[in-house]
Structures are given as C-alpha cells and as structure tokens.
Design brief:
This protein is an all-alpha fold and 254 residues long. It has 2 domains: 1-109, Tetratricopeptide repeat domain (Serine Threonine Protein Phosphatase 5, Tetratricopeptide repeat, Alpha Horseshoe); 186-254. 70% of the residues lie in helices and 0% in strands. It contains 13 helices and no strands. The protein has helices at 24-35, 39-52, 56-73, 76-89, 94-106, 112-122, 127-142, 146-159, 164-176, 180-193, 198-213, 222-237, 244-250. Helix 4 (76-89) runs antiparallel to helix 5. It is elongated and about 75 Å long. The two termini are 40 Å apart. Mean pLDDT is 91; it is low at 1-14.
Length: 254
C-alpha cells in the first residue's frame, strides 16, 4: 500500500523551542536513518530521543516516525502501539488515524475499519477522507465484500479522477460480481491513465473473453477473440507472464 504516506519532516524547528533544542541533532539523525530505510537503527534512535523528550509535540512525532520504522521492520503491533500513543497526545490529527489504520490492516487487525470510518466522520472529502475510502475499498475487497468495495471506490473516484490503481481495483471488484462490461470500463480508464499498466491489460483481456463467453459461447473465432488477445499479448509484452495460458487457449490455437 503505497498511498497517502505522510511526508517525513526534516526540520521541526518550532518543536525545539521548549528546552528541547539539544535533542535536535539526535532527532534529525533518526529522521535521516528512517529516510534511508535503515529501520532498525531508526527505531533505536527515536527511542533514544523519546527517553529524553519532555515536549508533547516532539514526543508525538517520535512516536509516529518510530511507528514508521516498525512498519518497515514488519513489526506492526509495535507500530500500532506507538500510533496509539501519538493519538493520545493529539486526538485531532487525522493523519495518525490513517497511519494506525494502515498498520492495523497490515497486521490483519479488523479494527482498522473503525479508524477509517472514524476519519470519514471528520473528513469525507479531504486527503485523509480519500485515504480512508481507498483503504476501506481494499479491506472490503479482501473480505470478499465486493459490492461494498465498489461503493467505497465509487465515492473515491468522485473526489480523485486520475488514480489508475483505484480504477483497476474497482474493475477487479466488478469482475468478482460477474460484471465484465463494467470492469472493462474501469480497465479502460486505468490504461488511459497509465498506458503501461500490465495488470489492467491482462484483466481487460480476460474480461473481454468473459463477456463474449458468458452466454455459453466458449468456442470463440479468431475474429471474436482478436481484441481480447491484443490485450493479453500486450500484458505479456509488458512482463505479465501469467497470461500465457489464456493466450494459449484463446489466441494461439486459431
């Protein structure tokens, strides 16, 4: 899940005006380690700063960034605990709820949904609201709630019209409810936004075949399969080799 990452701050000069200025070099070094993806050392460095910090704003950012370090290490339980602490220090910061929801989702913690739904009660259209809709759509899909996933993505695409991944995700959900025509529309949009989206070409090719065969016509002519085969072959050209079987069955045997 690559979206909606909070930008790592490099300064925070304001937060060092309360007798904490001597911690700035240590804090900046911890941030540098995190940006370099040296998560083990970054977590230790933030822990050192936390052991000396007295300012709540400094503590909050140390908890957040140590949580990011734990996420990088795959230790999601510790990340969630740190984000719990960050939220206790600032309950109004919706971004921390987004980050905690993401960590919970990685940990397969069902309460991730509660974090994202809470965000929507405070922000239904802004950046954090968009993040909530995105992750709720993904979680619903993973739970097999495909119609619900589509509804979340419907809301998201009203706010963000240029996100190829979400159109792809919604198309995949439509495939799961046997709506190949609807999924093709979404894959069209995903490819329009990202012409090298190999998974979208693959899925669109399969959806086109499913649309042609859904009434029992399983023996497609070369002409009938041509459009779908073009998509499948384009996906393979881009590196998506899992389409080989579909190409063999529907394209190469003509």
């Amino acid at each position: 899940m690559r979206k909606f990452l909070i930008t790592i701050l490099t300064g925070l000069t304001f937060y060092f005006g309360y007798g904490q200025a001597h911690l700035k070099p240590e804090y900046d070094n911890a941030v540098k380690l995190l940006k370099a993806e040296n998560y083990q050392e970054a977590s230790k460095a933030f822990s050192d700063v936390l052991s000396k910090a007295t300012d709540d704003k400094l503590k909050k950012f140390c908890f957040i960034y140590r949580a990011f370090s734990y996420n990088g290490l795959g230790d999601f339980k510790k990340a969630i605990a740190d984000l719990d602490d960050a939220i206790k220090l600032d309950t109004s910061d919706l971004a921390s709820y987004t980050d905690r929801g993401k960590a919970k989702a990685y940990a397969n913690d069902s309460t991730a949904i509660q974090d994202f739904q809470y965000i929507l009660t405070k922000d239904s259209t802004g950046e954090q609201g968009q993040a909530a809709l995105y992750y709720l759509g993904k979680i619903a899909y993973q739970q097999g709630k495909f119609k619900q996933s589509i509804r979340y993505y419907d809301r998201y695409t009203l706010l963000v019209t240029d996100d190829a991944e979400v159109y792809f995700n919604r198309g995949s959900a439509k495939d799961m409810i046997l709506d190949p025509a609807g999924s093709i529309v979404d894959y069209d949009k995903a490819i329009q936004l990202d012409p090298d989206y190999m998974e979208a070409y693959a899925n669109r090719g399969v959806a086109k075949i499913n649309l042609l065969t859904k009434n029992g016509n399983i023996q497609l002519t070369k002409e009938q399969a041509a459009d779908a085969c073009a998509d499948l072959k384009r996906a393979k050209q881009l590196g998506y080799i899992t389409v080989d079987d579909m190409i063999f069955i529907h394209c190469d045997k003509k």
